[in-house]
Amino acid sequence: MKSLHPSSALRPSACPGLLRVVQALDGGICRIKLDGGSLSADQAIAVADAAERYAGGVIEATNRGNLQIRGIGEESAALIKSLLTAGLGPVTAAGDDVRNLMLSPGAGIDRQMRIDTWPLARQILYSLQTDPRFHQLSAKFAVQLDGGEALAMLEHRHDLWLSATEQDGEPLLAFGLAGCPSDAPAAAVLLQDGHALVVAVLELFLDLARADQTRMRHLLSEHPLSSLVQQLAERVPLRSLAHWQRGPSVGALHLGVHPQRQEGFAYVGAMPPLGRLSPAMLSGAARLAESFGNASLRLTPWQSLLLPNIRHEEAAVVLGQLHALGLLTDTGDPLTRIVACTGSAGCAKGMADTKSDARQLAAFLHDSPRQEQIHLSGCSRSCACAHAAPVTLLATMNGHYDLYFREAGQPGFGALRARNLTIEAVAALLDARSRSPFDA
Q: What's the CATH number where 374 sits?
């Protein structure tokens, strides 16, 4: 195995990684990429300990099912060493940036799943980390593997997505480029050809893309999809699909108690307010996983966590103890549907203190009947949300935001509805909209 010491040479990138701490206004950031969003209880405790000992005690759940530690000071080397000792590092140092594979948090346990994605996921992750050519990929280049679960993020766009389906009784993987499983697929492959397809797509991308074309959408702007599919067909046997419709995901399955595919077991989901975990929250959840589950946790794209393999009769107790740790468990709480970036408290680009404003907005919306996601972004980069939320507040100055509503066909955040609103004015407008039979 190659050295994973922090001094190992890494590709230049503005994105933090486990081996590369990136500076922000509130200190250094270390991002821990988790295999399929999963980690053991011991690893979770190690993250909590590292955040408390070597940083500011702030742990964030990301919208890709990963964790990051903020506020790192001069002891970054000690922090990285502790995380490597816990087994949270990549197979090779150069593979850290590119292990970007998102699974459903319900992989292997979801009652609606068509396949268990874990065996294929392990193959893909190993190739991403050990094939030197794939280390040329951007740290943002990402793959999604969807097993047809009810608990699935279907709005995040990926450079390559694969989704389980079948045709004439034969298991297939539909796939698409620069999109998500709710889109029409480019083609399909036999399930056993899934790994070969991923390798072929990555190799074709690297064959064709210029240095400035870091994402699949950049390549598609110059190469028609039909041409790419034709070239893929020369490398992997492709199948056409007569019909395609990805089964719907079910809202709020990442919170509360939900039965698993395995008889007698459930998973329990809870959310740290605005995606931020204290060391006590994370270590407390880990100890619950040890006591009641199989000593594992799963992070979700909704910035929440799951404890799988809890016996049905003990699930309510676990949910109550997660709530006692300060995690959100009630889907009626407005904070469970508000996403906010770090904002001006931790980011030099932030135009407003989005975390504080989000809490204020949640208090105003406590009795609002409409349940839709609201995204507060301190600048136009939209770091906290990987898709256009139904409602976006884009900061213009401290405590003031432009208001956007998502609309089909509209790029970016959607349609601009009002400018430079205070949080109180935003709340009043959203409340009036939620109580009206017509959108405001």
A: 3.30.413.10
**Residues 304 and 421 grouped into a single domain:** no
The verdict on 189 and 274 lying in the same domain is no
Conformation bin of residue 65: beta by default, left when phi > 0, alpha when psi is -120 to 50 = left
- Residue 66 confidence (pLDDT) above 90: yes
Is residue 439's pLDDT more than 70?
A: no
pLDDT tens digit sequence for 68-84: 999 999 999 999 999 99
End-of-domain residue from the set 201, 221, 248: 248
The domain boundary, picked from 269, 295, 330, lies at 330
Residue 248 CA to chain centroid, in angstroms? 18
Which of 102, 125, 85, 92 lies closest to 36, judged by CA? 102
Looking at residue 248, what DSSP letter applies? P
How far CA 304 is from CA of 44, 265, 272, 281, 341, in Å, comes to 14, 20, 6, 12, 15
DSSP 328: B
Q: Any idea which of 24-33, 112-121, 283-292, 368-377 has the lowest mean pLDDT?
A: 368-377
The whole-angstrom separation of Cα 302 and Cα 151 is: 11
What burial class does residue 293 get, using C-beta atoms within 10 Å of its C-beta: 0-12 exposed, 13-18 middle, 19+ buried?
buried
- Domain residues for the domain of 264 are 256-330
Pairing of strands 400-405, 374-377: unpaired
- Report residue 47 as tokens: 């993250």
pLDDT of residue 12: 60
